[in-house]
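Two proteins follow. First one:
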Amino acid sequence: MVNSSRPLILIRGFGGPDVQDEQRDAYQGFNNGTVYPKRRGENYIYEGFVLRALKSGQHPYRDATNVVGYYAEEQSGPTEHDGWPEHLLSGTMIVDVPMAEEVLRQGAAGTLWIYRYYDLLPRTIHRYGEGLVRLIEIIRHGMRGEEFTGVDIVAHSMGGLVARAALSQLGDKSEELIHRIVTLGTPHRGIAFQYMPDQLVKSLPGSVADEIAAFDPDRTDIRAIPFPTRRILTVVGTDHRSYSSKFASLGNRVATLIDDGTLSYNRSDGLVKQASAQIPGAPRAFVHKCHGGRDSLVTSREAYEIAMRFLHGTHFVRLRLDKAEVTRGRDLFGRSEFYFGVSVKPRFIDFDLFHQSSDAENYYGPFRKDDFTDELPDLAEELSKPLSASGDATTGWAGENRLIWEGWVNASAKPEGMVDKTVVLRLDVHVCERDTLGIGFSDNLVFRKQYYVQAVPEAAGGPRLYLHTGERFLAPGATAEEVRAAAEGEDPEVQRMEPTDEGQPGTWTFKVGGTGFTADLLLSVTDERTS
């Protein structure tokens, strides 16, 4: 079977002043996973990014990490090179020809590579960028006559800055050499409390100074992106409470005080502010995970599922708010403001692809109008400002026309043996209210309800969409014919979603709400296999 997956490069984050442990870590943290005791089956144990990718039934990868040797000092090349260019067989990153012959016998498609930049010297972002460019060149030469359509990259934290350094060095060539990039908690716009006391800076080893400087919000030499931002997905962590470094969380809270004049929020993953982990114009995914450690951005199942759907998804989905009305919950004696959010979860995978909640501090708002027509900060405009001037850019809509979420789904991602060809997303809709004068309560729940959107393939034309308020017609064994009959019979638990009359093909409208809140939402679906 021909593997259609592009080569995948995994890049770790900052290792600290002493990187001996990182150098001894074979897979640079991407082999660490998480156990979820309250879940079962496939959702119980997540074995880590590498092993999960190697075991994948949908898009399996082959480990090619040992094809490249990384060294602090120059190495001479072999006399036999099996067609490899001589400049790739000597230096500090060299091809191991016997290993390459074994691993790449079938080509480099579907291979997985760990970029071990901490084995290289000197410790500078520029040097790490050079090494990544060289690794991409090695992979391209290993394609063995296959069509090369670029590599995919998943990078954690500073690894995203390493990827950006490589983009800067590649310039216009980056578009043909790199397909897509996923960054996990990367401080694209710096770290808010990067400015450290002089004495602390002087105490750091000189070898780590350039890496620390990479987090400077004012640094510009690695900030430019000669690459389509729509091909970069930024995964943004929101759980600062679980991060082990209390100094980092305190620093972000103090930075919020300086930037926004309040200590009420810590919109970060514990180390990187939510506003810093995003790129203007790039799609984003919120996950309620901390920056590093157990069940974090790099070790959680959510990060893997989101990344794989971005790299291999069959359909691109956008969810927007069309109309809204809050009908209860406004304080008569205080000053009410409302917040709105939606979390998105796919069927079969018990993990969010997008998460909004009070704990995550990432709802859209505040709204003081009952119909949510308040003018919120423009996300792209706010993210284009210096970090200290942008405030909490995460509270504005994700894009034009009140965009709530955009993401990718995989219609083929189903348990083995499952014949149901429908795609189902669960939408968890929230509306909250708080009194800003301190007279009333600060955490009132106005509305919350879960809905299930089901896309049923049709023999001709695009899919037909249904909205469910329960799982009765989504259980194993339920057929598309039963769903269709229930909707036509006006079963209160399922209704057919209607295409919009806005002249937008592939867009459907549906209503949500109940006591306290009603809204019209718009869902658009694009088949990326044909677009």
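Second one, unrelated to the first:
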Amino acid sequence: MSFDLTTQPWIPVTVQGVRAEVSVRDALLQAHEIDGLAVDDPLQAVAVLRQVLLPVVLHAFGVPRDIDGWHDRHTAGAFPPEVVTAYLDEYAARFDLFDPAQPFAQVADLHAANGETKPVSLLLPQLASGNNVPLFSARTDADPPALTPAEAARAVLSAHCWDTAAIKTGAVGDPKMKSGKTAGNPTGPLGQLGVVIPLGGSLFETLMLSVPVLRQGLPLDDRPQWATEEPQCPTWASRSPHGLLDLLTWQSRRIRLVPEKNDGEIRIRRVVLCAGDRIQTLPHDVEPHTAWRLADRRKPDEPPRPDRHQPDRSPWRGLAAMIATRRPTSEGKAAPLAMQQVAALRQEGVLPEDFPLRALVVGVSYGNQAAVIEDVVSDTIPLPVLALLDTDDTTDDTTEGNEVRATLLEVVDQAEALRRAANGLDDDLHAALGATKVPWDRGQKLGELLVNAFTPTVRRLLAGLQRHPDDADRAAAAWRTVARRTAEQIAAPALDAVPATAFLGRKITKTHHARLATADAAFRHQLNTILGPAEALVTTSGSGGNP
């Protein structure tokens, strides 16, 4: 039984808008012709890119030592086929999903201490497994899915990246097992990050944007999991990664698929999943795909922490951290290393100002002590490359770049200010009725409805600035007009629904009465303070530029 990932199609992609499945070999040889990955599950999409495609490129070609070296590779427009072919031929045996000695990303002859196997749904958090039963799930443990080898390969990679925490089945041969179990397991390493991956116009460009420029090259002992000398075994360790390749292909679980063959077709219904390696210290100077919260000045010895995405927060609201390429934000956040390098490439003129940059944003929210996945954050945001240039950058387009950046930061700041103003209106209306304020973690307040309503407008603004960076002023004026109109539309139903008793209001203190009129007036005052007077907005935005 065999399934060679280097030759068998298993990676969903789009080519000129048409979906197809390709092998690792075809994905890299045709990367310049492939639009991008088309994996339906964003967790699996990130896993395929980080655990297979990118490390193959880095290990096969090495890393450029300077910007000129990166530029030469990018200008070539495709990966040299002879290098790709020779590399995959050399490691072909390590990419067999069912190899009897070294199955890809698994442990041969892995057995649970209790001798049992689990439904393969254990690798798919959106399906029912054990106590993790999603609402309205159509399956139970008694009716596990039957995965094809292609589906199983993607599921294994995703488990290494995003698996839930808590107790895992003990493996035969694991000296750290106690009573047939292993406790204290963290989530998969990406579950602790807020993943941000720069995307280009093709799979080739996307991979190149994550190829780092390292003057010293990769460490000598750094290699992907398939190039290690010894096969994986049930034992595991708590350690720090040797380098980028080790980090990208981190084996956070010990896994063995249990394939079965019926009528000539291979299907996987059962799996063994046990504890794997734990990252002792996540190297912030190596991990390329997450923003960081830097140490507080009062606690300078604390290491930077990954900036995780919040499930109830639209990803564009985190733009300030994504573009903090030179200096931290006011909250002490710094951009992902990959984004910092994109800024340097634009700074050096390697990437054009109209480069079709997008940011893939993916994150996971865990629940019940990280034993289940409650929510997945996923979005692809158009991002003007000029917005990555900070005020200290000195190129011919510095002024234009700073205008684009200033516009985006202003939009994000104003959206947050409008959210607070709408929440203030919500609180004032409750006070006018003599009702208790809605707690921040209960229900949906007006401010949250408002920022969600802003999302289509912000996406159009980002795409517009990407195509026309010289229209930053018009875009900002148009945003203010649309933002005011949207805020008024969100507030209107709440104001209209207030009963007559709110007109008289309630006495809050000896000198303050909460009334409908004062709540409305305070909200409109906030709109004027944040966006400027309405009359000025109409005049300014008359020249065009509607986001």
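SUMMARY FIELD: Residues 71 and 96 are 34 Å apart (CA to CA). Confidence is low (pLDDT under 50) at residues 394-398, 538-545.
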